[in-house]
């Protein structure tokens, strides 16, 4: 989720769920070590538990950044070995590292020696021409030997050349069974699954035994949702009750907005721009009457000089008006029948 799940996005998502583990966008070690603005890269608000996801391949730098992540209050450090973007491949970051399992293991060991919090790896099931499960087992085996605390597996392989990052999320076939077979191979390792999951119900199926070709494969320890949540963030509102048996009320979209307004105003008072926050909430009314009006109004007006929360309030009013109009139509039709 490079350039997406920044601190503004995570603040918004935390208003929808108190329990889900939120992940930072992938931050390169160079940005942290050589950048001049640590609060920009490492700052976060009330979004615990949150994981710092790092991109890099130099053990010394990874250890330095992991230690900084712990000092800044992150609950876990995650190494990204799944991003297929050309932007990161050229610096030996992301999915290309699957071709260098020993180097990844060295990075994991270096981070483990630098921090007391868990160190995990997010990866794919393979790259390019890799077609055998045994190669994935060897890769994970090297991570276990280095002391990794858990892995998140995107159940597709990545093509390092020939496919765009978007195509790499859609074209290679999903092999969910490989992730469950991996859990069978490494029963003591925490394993989560990622890729192609659009609903909480679909995700929950992977936490229980998984049937494949007559096999009853073990359930997994966790599920990661990325694009589905970004496009439809209100999915998160049901996480606490469905996954954590929370007894708290599910927050309404309106209640979330009311809590978000002070955050936005504080951001603006410090010289920030409305669109830096508002771009993350475009999907709040996904699938709802007026949802397109909401997105259009914010998209067209949030970039304007001096734009404030009135832009979001106006967009919300469009939604409310559309819902009222549709309710009136339904009432009239019922009266005519």
Automatic annotation (TrEMBL):
Coiled coil: none annotated. The active site is at 83 (proton donor). Belongs to the dus family. Belongs to the Dus family. DusA subfamily. One of its GO terms (molecular function) is tRNA-dihydrouridine20 synthase activity. Transmembrane segments: none annotated. The gene is dusA. This is tRNA-dihydrouridine(20/20a) synthase. Its EC number is 1.3.1.91. Residues 1-315 form the DUS-like FMN-binding domain. It catalyses: 5,6-dihydrouridine(20a) in tRNA + NADP(+) = uridine(20a) in tRNA + NADPH + H(+); 5,6-dihydrouridine(20a) in tRNA + NAD(+) = uridine(20a) in tRNA + NADH + H(+); 5,6-dihydrouridine(20) in tRNA + NAD(+) = uridine(20) in tRNA + NADH + H(+); 5,6-dihydrouridine(20) in tRNA + NADP(+) = uridine(20) in tRNA + NADPH + H(+). The record marks 80, 166, 169, 292, 295 as: Interacts with tRNA. Keywords: Flavoprotein, FMN, NADP, Nucleotide-binding, Oxidoreductase, RNA-binding, tRNA processing, tRNA-binding. Its cofactor is FMN. It comes from Thiosulfativibrio zosterae.
């Amino acid at each position: 989720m490079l350039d997406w799940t920044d601190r503004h996005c995570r603040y918004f998502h935390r208003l929808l769920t108190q329990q889900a583990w939120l992940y930072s966008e992938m931050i390169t070690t160079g940005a942290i070590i050589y950048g001049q603005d640590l609060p920009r890269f490492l700052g976060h608000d009330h979004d615990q538990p949150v994981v710092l996801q790092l991109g890099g391949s130099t053990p010394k730098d990874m250890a330095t950044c992991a230690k900084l992540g712990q000092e800044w209050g992150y609950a876990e450090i995650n190494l990204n070995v799944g991003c297929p973007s050309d932007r990161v491949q050229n610096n030996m970051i992301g999915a290309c590292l699957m071709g260098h399992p020993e180097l990844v293991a060295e990075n994991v060991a270096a981070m483990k020696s630098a921090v007391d919090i868990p160190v995990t790896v997010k990866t794919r099931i393979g790259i390019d021409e890799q077609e055998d499960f045994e190669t994935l087992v060897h890769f994970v085996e090297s991570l276990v030997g280095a002391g990794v605390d858990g892995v998140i597996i995107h159940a597709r392989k990545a093509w390092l050349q020939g496919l765009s990052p978007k195509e790499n999320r859609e074209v290679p076939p999903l092999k969910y069974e490989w992730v469950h077979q991996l859990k069978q191979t490494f029963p003591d390792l925490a394993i989560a699954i990622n890729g192609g999951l659009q609903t909480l119900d679909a995700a929950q199926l992977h936490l229980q035994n998984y049937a494949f070709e007559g096999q009853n494969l073990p359930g997994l320890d966790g599920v990661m949702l990325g694009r589905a949540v970004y496009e439809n963030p209100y999915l998160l509102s049901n996480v606490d009750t469905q996954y954590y048996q929370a007894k708290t009320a599910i927050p309404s979209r309106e209640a979330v907005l009311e809590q978000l307004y002070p955050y936005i105003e504080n951001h603006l008072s410090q010289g920030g721009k409305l669109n830096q926050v508002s771009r993350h909430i475009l999907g709040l009314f996904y699938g709802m009457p007026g949802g397109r009006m909401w997105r259009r109004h914010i998209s067209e007006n949030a970039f304007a000089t001096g734009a404030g929360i009135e832009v979001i309030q106006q967009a919300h009013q469009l939604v409310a008006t559309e819902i009222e109009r549709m309710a009136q139509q339904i009432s009239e039709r019922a009266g005519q029948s």
